[in-house]
Amino acid sequence: MSEIFVLLKWPLIASLLLPWLLVYLGLHIVQRGVIFVDLALAQTAALGTCVAMLVGYDLHDWQSFPFSLGFTLLGAVVLTFTRTRHEQVPQEALIGILYVVAAAAAVLVLSHTAGGKEELQRSLVGELLVVPPAEVIKTFFLYLTVGVIHFLLRKKFLAISTQPAMAAAAGLNIRWWDFLFYLLFGLVVTSFVHIGGVLLTFSYLVIPAVCAIFLVNSLVARFVVGWAIATAASIASLLVTTRVDLPIGAATVCALGLSLLIVSLAATVSRRAA
Q1: In contact, 31 and 8? CB cutoff 8 Å
Q2: What's this model's pTM, rounded to 2 decimal places?
Q3: Of 45, 108, 234, 247, which shows the fewest CB atoms inside 10 Å?
Q4: Is 240 buried (19+), middle (13-18) or exposed (0-12) by CB count in 10 A?
């Protein structure tokens, strides 16, 4: 039992300390109606890591983070300039294209690296089980910093997410604030992709937020409920993996998916009963 606790100590700490900011940002993303933006940026971050490996850096070398961040910021610039009032092409379509191209580019890059197949799997499901403690601590303090910035600028960020037309009429530079939002978002996504992989990053961002929207109405309540669901799913998946040899990241994604199924069924039954 003690060996299991030692093995799961830092994955558990990471699962408890890190998803809160992902849940909050997920509420913004769902409100904006660009659900796959997080998946696209997560994949561009993974592409940056692949390029870092191609030029000779290890996944946990500090140099790999600037590569991931640089590619993510490039994606953020693309997303900023593809959001317009009068869209000829839905932004969600462009986001999907960004994801597919980044994923294909990652496959091409990894085809020229040793252990490319294993790295491709790691980029999807992460390596939460062997996450270095220093990585968790560094990411937590990064999230605190980003969280403070979001709190101080919350009115402007909420305005461009919920009522962009009114925000523009009030004089806000939508494109600038969009870029700042995606810049901070890119920092968060890049750091978590190194820990949890693309699929878990997307799942923490979207699934708890969608569950919370089914259940409650206010932003604060949705944040609390979403964080609680993310935490419960994380703990449940860690308990399962102590008994069955499963990848923790993939198990957590499935646990979150099951949570959404239960919540959506309960919400449907509740509406019909009312």
Answers
A1: no
A2: 0.82
A3: 108
A4: middle
